């Protein structure tokens, strides 16, 4: 409570976070990302987005971009490429298989959502 004339009640369920020397902000969640280039992550962070969920297979352009990642191999490579970035990233697998086995395979590979 450091603003004059402003009272912010702190409830009993509030967690206190030591933020000395850090920049701490509430982060936004973007649930519809076409992962086409790493620069998207910088742009997202600059606009307050700290969590991104989507898909793709990397560099792409125009209408070739997608919001789902097809199959375990692509999911694995995309997850590996995320290691260097300071944000929360999730992969949406291609969820239009007619049988559960293909969907289960993508979840085991690391997909946390399915895109229909």
TrEMBL record:
Pfam families membership: Amidohydro_1
Keyword vocabulary terms for this entry: Nickel
Annotated GO MF terms: nickel cation binding; urease activity
Cofactor: Ni cation
Top-level EC class: hydrolase
Gene3D superfamilies documented for this protein: Metal-dependent hydrolases, Urease, subunit C, domain 1
Pathway membership: Nitrogen metabolism; urea degradation; CO(2) and NH(3) from urea (urease route): step 1/1
PROSITE patterns per the UniProt record, alphabetical: UREASE_1 (PS01120), UREASE_3 (PS51368)
Urease domain segment(s): 27-116
Entry EC number(s): 3.5.1.5
GO terms under biological process: urea catabolic process
Protein name as annotated: urease
Organism: uncultured prokaryote
Gene that encodes it: ureC
């Amino acid at each position: 409570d450091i603003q004059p004339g402003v009272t912010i009640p702190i409830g009993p369920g509030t967690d206190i976070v030591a933020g000395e020397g850090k920049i701490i902000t509430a982060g936004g969640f973007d649930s519809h990302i076409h992962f086409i280039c790493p620069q998207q992550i910088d742009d997202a962070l600059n606009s307050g987005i700290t969590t991104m969920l989507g898909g793709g297979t990397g560099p792409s352009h125009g209408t070739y971009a997608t919001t789902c990642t097809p199959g375990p191999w692509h999911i694995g490579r995309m997850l590996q490429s995320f290691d260097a970035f300071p944000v929360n990233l999730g992969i949406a697998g291609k969820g239009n298989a007619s049988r559960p086995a293909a969907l289960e395979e993508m979840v085991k590979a690391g997909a946390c959502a399915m895109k229909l």
